[in-house]
Amino acid sequence: MSPAMAIVNNQSKSKSKSKANDGGDDDHVIMESQYQKGVKHLCENGIKKVPRKYILPDSDRPNNADKQQPLLHAAAAPNIKLPIIDFSELQGPNRAQVLKSLASACEEYGFFQVVNHGITNDVISNMIDVCTRFFDLPFEERSKYMSSDMTAPVRYGTSFNQNKDSVFCWRDFLKLMCNPESLPHWPSSPTDLRRLAATYAKETKYLFMEIVEAILESLGVWGATTMNNNKTEEDDGDSDDDDEILKQFEDGSQLMVVNYYPACPEPDLTLGMPPHSDYGFLTLLLQDHVQGLQIQHKDKWVTVQPIPNSFVVNVGDHLEIFSNGRYKSVLHRVLVNSAKSRISVASLHALPMESTVRPSPALIDKANPRRYKDTDFSSFLNYISSCEPKRKNFLESRKLI
Ligand SMILES: O=C(O)CCC(=O)C(=O)O
């Protein structure tokens, strides 16, 4: 079925359903088809309350304090300064020291913030600006890119997985695959989007490559690792292997997800993004000046304080697997607020789609037995298209112990 068909069918199915659910409350009588058009569209049509479609059960709301996992009230959640990695120091005589900080950030937080990374403020502000202008376009223009095909080169949509989520989250998105064949499919409006987003993609990929090299070195697997099916545990690492690994990352996939979170009339009832971990190896996140990202740290939700022009980098599921659990792919979520909309750009980097990810043999021994099954991109896609992703279920499904 084409994506358009899927939406048309939802519309006719859910007219009577939403009336029944909403009990005649005018604020809530909004048809399913309207939700499918996204939160921005909903807000543009004027709403004063959060429709039921977005209202989380008490236990999942931002301010819930779960008894088993006592997470702080969101409003009282302390801000956190993530460990800061000064990228320019990585290139100099203090590299060994910075690698140690990098390792402990990945072990303790699964997150760090990169400053002095060499991507100019212009490239960054141009990206935020052009993405803002994209979301400012009339709905008819944005909706040209709506698709439920997870492999589409460009995809505009809403919520986390709008075909599966029973409760929607308060975000719209534009997803851009970053391989050269995809670029001609990116939105043609605003007219400078392709140029500015392509520059941004190229620069973040370069930064990613530098960070990956540092991460492999910090794990002590540089020169001693194997990554894919063709290698065996007996292979000795050498510089050819290192080149091969870097080549795989160079050829790997990059997906840019532009998240738009409109201001929300009742932010305590919903979330911009539910708790999730990222599937890939590393994510480089750019956020505007509005805070909203929270990470789970020591069983508490803590808010990440944005640092202008920095990147928030987080360990993805593939890196947790590759590091045999030493580096942590940590749950994070996004709060919305009643005063301001927020934009973020997540650049998700992974190995090529056909690669197998497994724990590095160099990190397995008697004291540290293999903790994860092999995995690949298609098992992840099958997983998310067949269920409502809650928390970090996919990674859980790969665990051996
Ligand atoms: O908007 C943010 O701060 C986080 C976005 C995110 O978690 C994601 O795109 O996976």
State the main characteristics.
globular, binds 2-oxoglutaric acid, 32% helix, five-stranded mixed beta sheet, 15 strands, eight-stranded mixed beta sheet, 12 helices, Jelly Rolls, alpha+beta, Plant_2OG-oxidoreductases, Fe2OG dioxygenase domain-containing protein
Short description:
The protein has 401 residues and is an alpha+beta fold.
CATH class: Mainly Beta
CATH superfamily: B-lactam Antibiotic, Isopenicillin N Synthase, Chain
Radius of gyration in whole Å, from Cα?
21 Å
Low-confidence stretches: 1-27, 66-72, 224-237
Beginning-to-end CA distance, first to last residue: 39 Å
Structural class: alpha+beta
Unique bound compounds: 2-oxoglutaric acid
How much of the residues is beta strand, in percent?
15-25%
Classify the fold: give the CATH topology: Jelly Rolls
Q: Count the helices. How many?
A: 12
Order of helices and strands: HHHEEHHEHHEEHHEEEEEEHEEEEHH
Keywords: Iron, Metal-binding, Oxidoreductase
Pfam families: 2OG-FeII_Oxy, DIOX_N
Biased composition (Basic and acidic residues): 19-30
Organism: Xanthoceras sorbifolium
